[in-house]
Design goal:
about 250 residues; alpha/beta; Rossmann fold; 4-stranded parallel beta sheet; 3-stranded parallel beta sheet; 7 strands; about 45% helix; about 15% strand; globular; binds nicotinamide-adenine-dinucleotide
């Protein structure tokens, strides 16, 4: 099950998991979009669901169980939103909406799907965080705080569910040309400049993110619990790389 899978990174993850042999349920608040996206993947199904609604999440999991014969083996909490704007003028409404989707939505989905996985004794949850969980920006309101909170929630659910056979981890994408970030990278100058700033020398692709999700969802990651795997080409630790060389003169010789 992949949330926010009508497009962007979620759809790339759904396609990758399907290519790896999974039957995929694509969940989105845009139900038509989820159904359309599922139609392009063999044996997949689309489900409309607002992940911020407790009733909708429980009802959707019921529909999923009826269609797939049980609770999901893998849940990817990918649904997320961002609202741009000066932090000092940011509206409480935007702040609350982003928190509802990015944080409360992950909590609800993890609690409900996690309980069903725990009852069976197996399952994997992968949460999509962001480079902004560790490198915040001032012009995106609640977004960095919600992503940092999801990284902590990943550890909490790993502790709660690990002993019951369910692994929980997170993937933190950096600059990726997909979904909510693709308008930014349409500007070729911004794209080139951003690519130069990344230690890997390029911005990321949806496939880079999907590959990390597929790894964490696989048995190969069987002893990995509660981790946030940054998929950012090295951006999260590149501060010194961005600065001029700060070497004392005598050390130059
Ligand atoms: N694109 C990037 O560069 C990037 C970088 C870091 C992290 N991320 C994260 O990756 C995830 C996917 O982002 P994307 O870039 O593909 O954006 P996107 O906007 O293309 O996809 C987000 C999807 O979530 C769905 N959604 C929104 N609210 C929902 C709700 N209440 N219930 C169910 N579905 C809902 C949207 O309809 C949309 O299909 C997000 O969590 C985002 O924060 C993206």
């Amino acid at each position: 099950m992949v949330t926010g899978a009508a497009g962007g990174l979620g759809l790339a993850v759904a396609r990758r998991l399907a290519a790896d042999g999974c039957r995929v349920g694509l969940v989105d608040i845009d139900g038509d979009g989820a159904v359309r996206a599922a139609a392009g993947i063999e044996d997949a199904e689309g489900f409309r669901c607002d992940v911020t609604s407790e009733g909708a999440v429980i009802a959707m999991l019921g529909r999923f169980e009826a269609a797939f014969g049980g609770a999901p083996d893998i849940l990817v909490n990918n649904a997320g939103i961002v609202r741009f704007g000066d932090l000092l003028e940011h509206s409480v409404e935007d702040f609350r909406n982003v928190t509802e989707v990015n944080l409360v939505g992950v909590f609800l989905m993890s609690r409900e799907a996690g309980a069903r996985m725990a009852a069976r004794g197996s399952g994997v949850i992968v949460n999509i965080t962001s480079l902004n969980a560790v490198q915040p920006k001032p012009d995106i309101g609640a977004y960095p705080a919600t992503k940092a909170a999801v990284a902590k929630l990943t550890e909490q659910f790993a502790l709660a569910l690990g002993p019951r056979g369910v692994r929980v981890n997170a993937v933190g994408p950096g600059f990726v040309d997909a979904g909510m970030s693709s308008p930014i990278f349409r500007d070729l100058a911004v794209r080139a400049e951003s690519g130069r700033a990344v230690p890997a020398g390029r911005i990321g692709t949806p496939g880079d993110v999907a590959a990390a999700v597929a790894f964490l969802a696989s048995d190969e990651a069987g002893f990995i619990h509660g981790q946030q795997l940054m998929v950012d080409g090295g951006m999260s630790f590149s501060l010194w790389n961005q600065l001029p060389r700060l070497v004392p003169e005598e050390a130059e010789d």
